[in-house]
Amino acid sequence: MKKRTLLWLVLALVVFGGGAWMAQKTNLFGGITLSPRAKQLAYLKEHEEDMADFVKALSPKVESVQFDWDSMKVGQVGNGTPQGGGYMLTLRGKVNNNDKTKFMVGFSLDNDANGIPKEFGIYEMQPIRIYRDGGWYYYD
How far apart are CA 140 and CA 80, in angstroms? Predict the structure, then answer.
């Protein structure tokens, strides 16, 4: 009798514990919940063409733009106050398939480091540069 009760108790713990664990990992309405980073990356990829057009407008020599999706970072913006000035989502890339070029664009995230931009607005965080003669120079 005790063995049977113990067996049912262990089985119930496994079933309910596994169900609770699965509920944390998935959306109860059927889909898998994306992490904040995955949502931010999906937002950027959705606007890839707009971002490329923005970078191309920075220099007439830019024919193609390649983004380094692994370089995506979120950082806090300082403005001299304890609460800070919000958060920026930044992304690096190169132009014209040249590994000796680089740039960085940014997007404002307001006060939510895990959010996505409320409206599409790109900032030039670092201008397009090219490595030559032992240093980084503006891409002109």
Answer: 34
pLDDT of the chain along its 140 residues, tens only?
677 776 676 666 666 666 555 555 555 566 677 899 999 999 999 999 999 999 999 999 999 999 999 999 999 888 777 777 789 999 999 999 999 999 999 999 877 889 888 778 899 999 999 999 999 999 97
| Residue 113 · residue 88 · CB < 8 Å | no
d(C-alpha 105, C-alpha 28), whole Å: 36
**What is the Cα–Cα distance from 132 to 3, expressed in whole angstroms?**
77
| Interacting residues of 80 by C-beta distance below 8 A, sequence separation 6+ | none
| Whether pTM exceeds 0.85 | no
What are the beta bridge partners of residue 130?
101, 137
d(CA 129, CA 140): 8
How distant, in Å, are the alpha carbons of 72, 73, 114, 115 from that of 37?
9, 9, 7, 9
DSSP string covering 29-70 = TSSBPPPHHHHHHHHHHHTHHHHHHHHHTT-TT---EEEEEE
